[in-house]
Amino acid sequence: MACGGAFLGRVRICRRTRHRLPLESRSLSPGRSQTRTPQSEIMKAIIIAAGRGRRLMPTTADSPKCYAEIHGKRMLDHALDAFAGAGVTDVCFIGGYQIDKVRADYPRFTFRHNQDWENNNILLSLMHAEDLMDEGFICSYSDILFTSDVVKGVLHHPADIALSVDTQWLDRYQHRSQHPPDDAEKVIVSNGRVTRVHRGILPDEAYGEYTGIAKFTPAGAAKLREHFHQAREQFAGKPFREAVVFEKAYLILLLQQMIEAGIPMAHSDTPGHYMEVDTQEDFELARRHWLRA
Question: Could you give the C-alpha distances from 247 to 47, 202, 232, 235, in angstroms and in order?
């Protein structure tokens, strides 16, 4: 999606500028009664990367989607740089398609293998790393570009669950014909809390787009696991919200389930500093407009 400002004509603004997060995004209201978790206590990143990314063919013909190169560097390496810039160096990679390539190239990772990746989706993929969640974590999609400021935003937020939200998301969609705004994982917020996360939110009503990056403290991770198991017990093999079956559910479906159950989720705002690379069109846009190191 766009880098640290609007797209195209204003892209130079984002090269050197560091944005302070809006006060609302750093509000304590979602977590005043929650335990603060210092940055140093969350040092694990979980990268969800099991899928093939068919919309990025032929780039993903024989390599994982996160191996697509922007400015001579894999998207995965861009993500690692962003995490490292925020002090997060412990990485769990949840792989499926072409996982052996990643194992060979990144032996320092902790790996979790989603062997049934063709028959499930992001939610079940993430939960392959459930055993690593006790101490808290940051999770991210693997087909996105983002800066260390985005990671720092969620990492420093006092809430137990904080979602990274791009507030300039519509600027990017002006240039995306293959991925319309209807496909965006949009959010509505109120008083510092996310009240809805759903693709069906009308663009005019959306506060921003969920970037695919979220932080869970130990308490937040416990809530995620609790609600995952409740949902799986009730819906395994059955429709779950908008998913045809529970196994095909996106992560945001469980997040919305949790919101409706009263679990507070905060938003950490980023005005750009982020792009999604979902299609060949996105790939070309990223190669032209993403920040160079």
Answer: 19, 26, 8, 9
Domain range for 153: 21-31+41-289
Coil/strand/helix, residue 101: helix
Is residue 60 a contact partner of residue 54, using CB atoms and an 8 Å limit? yes
Cα distance between residue 157 and residue 31, in whole Å: 9
Tell how far CA 118 is from the center of its chain. 20
Instruction: Note whether residue 1 is domain-resident.
Output: no
3-state SS class at 58: coil
Instruction: Assign 292 a pLDDT band (cuts: 50, 70, 90).
Output: low
Classify residue 219: in a domain, yes or no: yes
Answer with the residue of higher pLDDT: 104 or 7: 104
Q: What is the pLDDT of residues 44-56, one digit of tens each?
A: 999 999 998 777 7
| Entry pTM | 0.85
Residue 112 has pLDDT above 50, yes or no: yes
**Number of domains into which the chain is organized:** 1
Half-sphere exposure of 259 (CA within 13 A, CB side): 22
Asked if 144 and 79 touch (Cβ cutoff 8 Å), the reply is yes
Handedness of CA 35, 136, 275, 257 (dihedral sign): negative
